[in-house]
Amino acid sequence: MILTLRIDKIEPGNYRAQVLDGREELGEFGATGIAAAIRQCAGQQMPDLSGYHVWYEHVCAGTIPMSNMRIDPDGIAQRLMSLHGSVRG
């Protein structure tokens, strides 16, 4: 199973993360940053969960396997920030 993690910036240091299965919202939580939201999702223990489509506002880093989310949440966050900046710029 692959879920969607959608992260939106409310203000600096305050992010909202939603976990979705298609259009159905499975949960919502607050995080201090993009990497923190990724880390929190990577810590979930669901046997059939293989990864997430990871979004930051209007850009997507792609489908990220759980192993990558556990190993490199900061790198994924940096890639999302870079994509976000290049789309806006």
Task: Provide an overview of this structure.
The model has no long low-confidence stretch (mean pLDDT 93). The protein is an alpha+beta fold and 89 residues long. A 5-stranded mixed sheet has the order 3-2-1-4-5. The radius of gyration is 12 Å and the shape is globular. The protein is built from 3 helices and 5 strands; from the N terminus they run E-E-E-H-E-E-H-H.
Features:
alpha+beta, 89 residues, 5-stranded mixed beta sheet, globular, single chain
Secondary-structure topology with pairs:
Elements: E1 2-11, E2 14-21, E3 24-31, H1 34-42, E4 51-56, E5 59-65, H2 66-71, H3 73-88
Parallel strand pairs: 1-4
Antiparallel strand pairs: 1-2, 2-3, 4-5
Uncertain segments are none
**Rg, please?**
12 Å
Cα end-to-end separation: 34 Å
Q: For the report, how would you describe the main beta sheet? A: 5 strands, mixed
Q: Number of helical segments? A: 3
Order of helices and strands: EEEHEEHH
Proportion of helical residues? 25-40%
What general form does the structure show? globular
Question: Could you say which structural class the secondary elements and strand pairing correspond to?
Answer: alpha+beta
Number of strands: 5
Q: What's the rounded overall pLDDT mean?
A: 93
Strand content: 35-45%
| Major sheet strand order | 3-2-1-4-5
